[in-house]
Amino acid sequence: MFLSKTDFKKIFTFSLVGVSALYFSQKKITSEQANEDNLKKHIYYLASDELQGRLTGSEGETKAANYLSAEFKKLGLKPYEGKSFIQGFEYNVKLNPHDDKTSTTVKGKNVVAVLNNKAEKTIVIGAHYDHLGLNEHHNSTLANSDGQIHNGADDNASGTAAVLELARMFSQNKTKENVNYVFALFSGEEDGLMGSKKLAETIKTNYPNTIFMINMDMVGRLNSNKDLTIGGVGTSPILSDLVKKYKPEGINLGLDESGVGPSDHTSFYLKDIPVLFLFTGTHNDYHKPTDDSDKINYPGQKIITNYVFNLANALGHEKEIPFTKTKVAPTKAVPKYKVSLGIMPNYADSKDGMGIDGVIDNRPAANAGILQGDTLTRIGKCEVKEVYSYMDCLAKINAGEEHPVTVKRNGEEKVFNVKF
Ligand SMILES: [Zn+2]
Predict the structure, then answer these.
(1) Are 355 and 407 in contact (CB under 8 A)?
(2) Ligand 1 centre distance from Cα of residue 129 (Å)
(3) How far is the CA of 131 from the centre of ligand 1 (A)?
């Protein structure tokens, strides 16, 4: 999952519509089932310390890419381009987040395979496999975490494992589909959807009739309420009925219309391809070294993988999937900041303040005496309930102003004068 500091997820969470108990699960005709052991094996390897957090351009990324290529080869799939499953791409990344001048070129590797059923239509099923490495590119939400391995089990070994398993299911499926499948494992996602941009630029040249893209990013943490968010349902008029029709029993769907979101489906939506995006939600380990394999809900991930199998099957049988542009309502716009507090917010849901996961040295919060572990409740008169109201409060402040900032520390209220 890619979140700029001006949090995409605000747009996202605020546009969810619950559609839980209204629909009964349908009978499905499938010959293949996802295998939990396969999912587990892939995730444990990809999120192991050996791969050092799979940073784009790193040795760990190469190891992951080799593993993924070998899996595709075992299934008898064909490379997307040329003789290798690797599709290379390049971009620049800042070495120091506070300095625009020093940047370095990163060489990334998508791993892309095709199940060519000699069909007219093609569906892309994708997930990103890169993650934050040792925080070399400064995308961690934990302060002072440079040098710690960010294993990225949920983000996004989970989606990667699901794509590998779907590749197995479709290539071993007895019923031949009348659609080709492109299984796309992207790199460069955490630095801004770089790999998927590259594939989206080439997909219609190689497969002119690409009718759909399904993306999975963070599908490993299905909670006890079984909440699953699906984005992109507004990108075609057929989608909201379709996702409800095939919804697994007990799953609570939260639907989001937008084709633009915090992950790789955005790259395809921007090429006028209808998309779906599956996501089990954010959590305390998001973009931290603690996003580990033992915290994954494997039975939950199996349910989601089977769901995507059924959806992809159904989409292949649709006569037509008209593309529609979705709009982001002006009220959902991300606020613009002129100032920053210099803290790492906790993204977890809350009503009584936002946790502070980290405090950056020599920035306003640290200078005023605010500490990691404090809970932020108020900036000036503006009440902070969680990360979203925090962003709203921050957007009202101008550089140079001074405001009292209230935090809870060990149950006690403390007020600090912060100079922004
Ligand atoms: Zn991420």
Answers:
(1) no
(2) 10
(3) 6
CA distance 61 to 49: 12
Rounded to whole angstroms, the Cα distance separating 382 from 335 reads 15
CA atoms within 13 A on the CB side of 168: 19
Do the beta carbons of residue 277 and residue 11 sit within 8 Å?
A: no
Question: Ligand 1: distance of its center to the CA of 183 in Å?
Answer: 20
CA of 152 to the centre of ligand 1 (A): 8
Please check whether residue 3 lies inside any domain of the structure. Answer: no
Distance 396 CA to ligand 1 centre (A): 28
Say if residues 58 and 131 touch (Cβ distance below 8 Å).
Answer: no
| Centroid of ligand 1 to alpha carbon of 16 (angstroms) | 20
Examine residue 174 and state whether it is found in any structural domain, yes or no. yes
What is the CA(132)–ligand 1 centre distance, in A?
8
Q: What is the pLDDT along the chain (420 residues), one digit of tens a residue?
A: 776 544 444 444 434 443 433 333 344 444 689 999 999 999 999 999 999 999 999 999 999 999 999 999 999 999 999 999 999 999 998 777 666 677 889 999 999 999 999 999 999 999 999 999 999 888 888 888 899 999 999 999 999 999 999 999 999 988 778 899 999 999 999 998 999 999 999 999 999 999 999 999 999 999 999 999 999 999 999 999 999 999 999 999 999 998 988 899 999 999 999 999 999 998 889 999 999 999 999 999 999 999 999 999 999 999 999 999 987 544 334 455 677 888 877 766 567 888 887 777 778 998 999 998 899 999 999 999 887 788 888 888 888 899 999 999 988 999 999 998
CB atoms within 10 A of CB 37: 9
The reply to whether 324 falls in a domain is no
Distance from residue 307's CA to the centre of ligand 1 (Å): 23
- Protein residues within 5 Å, CB atom, of ion ligand 1: 1, 155, 190
Domain that holds residue 363: 335-419
- Residue that terminates a domain, selected from 291, 317, 343: 317
For residue 318, report the distance from its CA to the centre of ligand 1, in Å: 32
